[in-house]
Each structure stands twice: as structure tokens, then as C-alpha cells.
Amino acid sequence: xxxxxxxxxxxxxxxxxxxxxxxxxxxxxxxxxxxxxxxxxxxxxxxxxxxxxxxxxxxxxxxxxxxxxxxxxxxxxxxxxxxxxxxxxxxxxxxxxxxxxxxxxxxxxxxxxxxxxxxxxxxxxxxxxxxxxxxxxxxxxxxxxxxxxxxxxx
Length: 154
Fold this sequence. Notes:
This protein has 154 residues and is mainly alpha-helical.
């Protein structure tokens, strides 16, 4: 995954820089794992997350999916198009509102949805299993604070 810092290598001083270094390391590890997933499963980490949500909520709309993932719908459009093109997802027209599309997994998408080995999700599940509930709760709060602050800075 990410390269461990060699012993004796400089460490950022101060709480903010140290925290940012850890976030950078996490981001890098997520990217490395996502690229490996693309090679082994045919989808990246974010694409698999979309497939997992669609697998849990068949017939979900793009707007509902974006809200679930905390994304703007336009951010999700490219991901949905790629997953459709690769035949992981199938789009159908909502009979009650023909302007709205609904998504469900294809047989190929269901296979990727079931596959756990080598995924970001599997690593997260293992880490959560080793952490105390209070640690997870505090981490979730900190991530929410960071997201809110970064969104405010835009």
C-alpha cells in the first residue's frame, strides 16, 4: 500500500501538519488500493462504492444516490456513465417521471458487489473490527468536521 516512513525520517511538526500528513497518507493508500481494484475487479474504489449502494437500493435514482454518497449529482454522472458502459449498471426510465432514470445492477455488477477480497471496503472492515467503538465515533465526527470546514472554504 503506502510506503512506511523510514526510521529517522523527518516528521512534520505541529498538530495540523502531522494530521495533514496522515490524511495525505490515507488518501495515497486509498488511491493505490483503488488502482489495484481497477486491475483486479474492473472497477475503482469509488465505482465499487456506487455498485454497493445500488446493490442495496435497487431502482435508486441518480439524485438519491448522490445524496446517499454526499456528492453533487453532476459529480456522479461520469461514474454512472462508465459503469453503464462497462455493463455493471443498467439504467431504466422511471415510469412515474420519464425525466428520471433509475439504476440497478446487472449480473456483472452483482458479481463485483459480492466480491470483497482486495477492496477498500475489506480493509475498512478489518480496521473497524480492531478499533474501539469510541475511536470510530470520534473519527467519524472528525471527518464530518473536516468535510464541513472544507465545504465552507469553497
